[in-house]
Every structure is written in structure tokens, then in C-alpha cells.
Amino acid sequence: MALTCHFLAIHPDLQEKVYQEVKEVMDANAGELTYDCLNKLKYTEAFIHESHRLYNFVGALERVCVKPYYIPELNYYIPEGMIVQLPCQTMMQDEAFISDPKSFNPDNYSEEAKKDLPSTVLSTASFGVGPRNCIAMRFAMMQVKLVVAHMIHNFAILPCDKTIKEMIPDPMDASLLPKGSLWVTFEPRM
Question: What's the pLDDT at 20?
């Protein structure tokens, strides 16, 4: 949530698109947000996914090598049984998958763009990848969308004096929050 709020604050034009989508869906449903309404919030969901892709709190995915694997660039064999760590940030910011991977662009998760994304980037690895991913991933995303929708419907999320410009992971923070933490201001909408 903090990450999504940070990106909403520093991208007011995109925040307005999220707000307009939420407002349209809520207005069409007498101000209520049902399960079906939440499923209509495609841009809001794309915004959340892009927030997780650009700055991921999951350091690495761990897998056990099931058969010897040769890496020709390193002239090295990974032996069977060795634990291998795959850095999430590296694969989610690989130009082979995302054009301009350092830029924040929720359209990376549009219906059209998702057809070309591999599952590792599509899931943003925040919930894990493959058969060991989080079994509550859909439920968690639904909760995040619900909170974001209600927040954005009632408040404009703005940067403040403490809002950081560059997100550099803090090695002393167990959750890998960026140095300076994430700060925003909420202003009630009229």
C-alpha cells in the first residue's frame, strides 16, 4: 500500500486516471464497490502491479536445482540440489520483457501488453512465481484494490516534504523499504 501511495503521489496525472476509473465504476453502482466492480478496475490493478514491478520488496526467489545445469557465460555447472537465488528486481526490469523498464508505466500491464509478458514479470514476483506462489494472491490483490479505490475516491494523494525522489533500498531495513521511507500527504476530495 505504501508503495502504491508513493507512486500515486509522484504521478498526479496517472492518479487522476485511477480516480476517474474508480469514480466511473462507483457512480455506475450507486457508490458501492462490489466484487464485480473491483474486477472492472483494470487500470487501478495495472497501477498496483507496476508499483510492485518497479520497486519490489521480494529480494530473490529461491529454487533447488533439480538437475545439473551448465552456464556457458560463466563456464560453471550448477550441481543438482544446490539452492539458486533469482533476483526479482533484475528480471522485472529486464529490457527483454519491458521497454523502458526504469520508467513507471501502468500500461505495461494493459490487456494487450500482458499477452507478451512472461509469468515472472506478469505476476511481478511479489507473490512468488510458479507452483510455489502465494495461494492468497488473488484475495490479496482484491484487498489492495479495495483499499486503493476507497482511498483514491475520498482523498487526493500528494507528495510532501519527506517524499523521496529516488528509491534506494535501505540495507538496514528488514523489509527493504527505500532509504528515507515512504511519505505522502492525504487531502480530502470535495
Answer: 98
* CA gap 68, 78 in Å, rounded: 6
Q: Please name the residue ranges forming H helices in the chain.
A: 2-10, 12-27, 35-39, 42-54, 88-92, 111-114, 119-122, 137-154
Q: What is the mean pLDDT of the chain?
A: 86
Q: Which residue from 116, 186, 109 is spatially nearest to 155, judged by alpha carbons?
A: 186
CATH number of the structural domain spanning residue 74: 1.10.630.10
Closest alpha carbon to 17 in 104, 124, 93: 104
**Parallel, antiparallel, or unpaired for β 155-158 and 60-64?**
unpaired
Task: Quote the number of domains for the chain.
Answer: 1
Cβ atoms of 178 and 25 closer than 8 Å = no
Find which of 25-34, 94-103, 162-171 is predicted with most confidence, using mean pLDDT: 25-34
Q: Are 38 and 146 in contact (CB under 8 A)?
A: yes
In this structure, the number of other CB atoms found within 10 A of the CB of residue 68 comes to: 11
User: pTM for the full model?
Assistant: 0.81
